[in-house]
Amino acid sequence: MKLPVARRYSSMQKAAHWVLFGLCISQFPTAYAIQRTHMGGPFGIKPAPLDLFLHKVHAWGGWTILILAIIMLTIRLVRGAPALPHGMSAWQRWPARTVHASLYGFILALAVTGTGAMYVAIGFAPIHIALTKFGIALVILHVLAVIWHQVVRRDGLLLRMMPEGRGVSAQLHSIGSKTVSGELGNIGCKSAPN
Questions:
Q1: What is the distance between the alpha carbons of residues 18 and 8, in angstroms, rounded to a whole number?
Q2: Taking Cα atoms as reference points, which of 19, 22, 20, 1 lies closest to residue 160?
Q3: Which has the least CB within 10 A, 38, 128, 142, 174?
Q4: Which residues, including other chains, have CB under 8 Å from residue 27's CB and lie 6 or more apart?
């Protein structure tokens, strides 16, 4: 099933979302290399070449995440986002909007503190690590909400961010979406910022 354009994110928004997700996952294994590159310094031990490479991958990955987040935020401000599903109460809409705004803020702050820790002062590092833990909690809330929409509410919300074609809609339908023609009105069709 294909949703009308106003009921789903643009192809650019979807691509940026999933690339950003992949880049965020890649940051975890590369983060440990940063610690290893600095541990031996006080003892005159040079870091391993692989750790130096992973250190650079982490830095460039973080900056790429920042650029993607800025692009996503700009598109969201210009194009808007699909309306939240019909029937969501205020207590459900408020956390949805708050978590989305917090995710953008978290990504921006993480890039700034990570760059600060690498190039300005090591004092940024504890803030960067705390933000990482906070961000993991935000992502978990985000994923749990998507699962709740897909399995409990069965309102087709997940379709808004999934790529078109390749049987994605049929697969989603098989795991709980009851959205069919005539019920698409539950998703909302007005493009408005969340």
A1: 15
A2: 1
A3: 174
A4: 58, 61, 62, 65
- In this prediction the pTM is 0.75
Q: Which residues contact 75 (CB under 8 A, 6 or more apart)?
A: 10, 12, 13, 16
Note whether residue 125 is domain-resident: yes
Contact (Cβ atoms closer than 8 angstroms) between residue 155 and residue 113: no
Q: How confident is the model at residue 44 (pLDDT cuts 50, 70, 90)?
A: confident
Q: What is the pLDDT of residues 104-124, one digit of tens each?
A: 999 999 999 999 998 899 899
Domain count, the chain: 1
Q: How far apart are CA 123 and CA 110, in angstroms?
A: 14
98 within some domain: yes
> Which CATH number do you get for residue 169?
1.20.950
The answer to whether residue 192 is domain-embedded is: no
Predicted confidence (pLDDT) per residue in 61-82, tens digit: 999 999 999 999 999 899 888 8
Let me know if residue 188 belongs to a domain: no
Domain span at residue 95?
A: 5-181
Contacts of residue 172, defined as CB under 8 A and 6 or more positions apart, other chains included, come to 150, 156, 158, 159, 162
The rounded distance, in Å, linking the Cα atoms of 165 and 163 is: 7
The rounded percent of the chain whose pLDDT value lies above 90 is 49
For residues 193 and 80, the answer to whether their CB atoms sit within 8 Å is yes
Which of 108, 124, 106 minimizes the C-alpha distance to 116?
A: 124
